Amino acid sequence: MRTDFDFPKNDLVGPVVFRPEFNNSQAITVNQAWSLFFTAGQEDKALGTNPELGRFFTYLFVGVGVAGTLWATIFNSVA
């Protein structure tokens, strides 16, 4: 994605994903994705570069979803 905007850093207010130097159309890492989620798009390096923290949040999210689905399935079939 190429933008024609060239705002000075102090005038740029908004999400980091709209800045020209964000990632040059490369795939973002898990940590960048969770950092953007937790900071509402304001910072992509809030969780650092260690991929284990990003994986932890991903597996936690999947685990909560699976546990919720199993809970609903088990206790709705009993009632």
Care to describe what's here?
Keywords: Membrane, Transmembrane, Transmembrane helix. The chain crosses the membrane at residues 56-75. By secondary structure, this protein is mainly α. The chain has one domain (9-78). The longest helix is centred in the C-terminal third of the chain and has 28 residues, at 51-78. It has 2 helices and no strands. It has helices at 30-38, 51-78.
What is the 3D shape?
elongated
Low-pLDDT runs: none
Order of helices and strands: HH
Helix content: 40-55%
Question: Strand fraction band?
Answer: under 5%
Q: What count of helical segments does DSSP give?
A: 2
Terminus-to-terminus distance: 53 Å
Number of strands: 0
Radius of gyration: 18 Å
Overall pLDDT, averaged? 81
Keywords: Membrane, Transmembrane, Transmembrane helix
Transmembrane segments: 56-75
